[in-house]
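User: Could you check the structure of this?
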Amino acid sequence: MDNKDLANLIFPDVKDYTYYEEKYKARNLPEGAIVTRFAPSPTGFVHIGGIYQSLIAKSMAKDDGIFFVRIEDTDQKREVEGGTKQILDALKDFDLSPDEYIDEDNVNHGEYGPYKQSLRKEIYQSYAKKLIEEGKAYPCFCTPEDLDKIRGDQEKAKERTGYFGKWTRCRNMPIDMAIDKIKNGDSYIVRFKSPGNPDKKIKHKDVIKGNVDFPENDQDIVIIKSDGLPTYHFAHAVDDHFMGTNLVIRGDEWLSSVPLHLQLFYVLGFKAPKYAHIGPMMKIDGEGKRKLSKRKDPESAVSYYKEEGIPKQSVLEYLMNIANSNFEIWRKQNPEKSMYEFPFDLKKMGVSGALFDMVKMLDVSKNVISRLSAEEVYNASLEWAKEYDEELAEILENKEYSLRVLGIERGNVKPRKDIAKWSDVKNIIYYMYPEKFDKNGEFEYQKVTDEDEITKIVKTYFEKYYNETDDKQIWFNKMKDLAEEFGYAREVKEYKANPDAYKGHVGDISTVIRVKLTGRCNTPDLYEIMKVLGKEELLKRV
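Assistant: Sure, the predicted structure tokens are below.
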């Protein structure tokens, strides 16, 4: 009996590995083209970090390359129904749809599928069989109790834990004994026979982290579980070889696995891809930082952004900014260009991870929304409102009027930046709708507090100065005339130069009019607001 007999007994019906080498030809792409992937597990929760990783991957593959999605579902205990659909929907929602993928009906879109690991079982087994034939893998019959005993003995001896060296009970088991155990029905898994020596070092150059030294891997890891499915380590090596991946972008929690993964590629006879390990998304917590948490932070879930009404472009531009900090300057210089025209550089990513700041994201979002037309803001607000805010949807039913409202200070050199998310819209435009405005509400007028004076200012303005046909300059000059009539400076600088000579300045007077008409001290351009409201509504409000 030899290794070939053992391999045939364990995997009697699988195709020879050469079949798959012939089936999956190397990709015919231009030199330098990047082939990379997003490889999530279908657990029902799509983390914002997955969008971050996919954005980076798509940015790297944008020219002549390929960005594909591979569903890694070998740990089937964690899989939830509809998990694949949730992943694909999230990517689609953020305009990150892959070039190749498998859909929720297990239909492959691309020539290198199946793009789901549970459907590639025989491919992994064919390579596990090859390794057994070559004496580079073996069946292991250790029970959970055996492994617990090994771990306990290692801890007592104050040694590192794992299945390696003298602790590998099944590594050197005679082939005849292993065959007898299998024929006897003993449960087993297949382990990789590591050729590594931990006293030796490997030098690895990570695209983001730079040069990193590791001890060689000497762990005899499981490559095929008792259910016949592979572990992540083995599956990813086989898949990335056949799918032509030449750049793996993943979280830096996998950095310590590099020695094992490079070893697997070497032993399997594959060319290893380059690795780019992304630091975790961090969040300020008290005086320190911590990882963005699925349990603690609602913004860690992709669903949060849709529910809040934060536009996908805002999220993507923020993520691009924390990935490459020079994106913000580039965007200011290129406001109309697609973000994928930005020269993204993995080497400019922070080694220790990015600080995730919702305040900054909302600032970015205000800039993104400020570049949109009134029509775009209206359509996006209405679409969101139909699902999440019935009252806002009702307000927006009058499209023609709503477009005028949302068009205030839009399209200017310095457009309004008061909307960060669609859930802000109702509060921002509420007062512009006659049926919603409460003219008898309690308003804060800031500088001018005397009720009689407020009444006189408003009455005088509408009886003496207001004319709906005035252009903006005439309108403002009349506001200055009104200020002067009541003892306020015509110009702010005049008041600052001699504050004792005036009650205040023209800004205080315009605030009185603003608050009377809108109920608010801070609004977009008052002249435009008055134009949209129209004379009849203005007079009703005063």
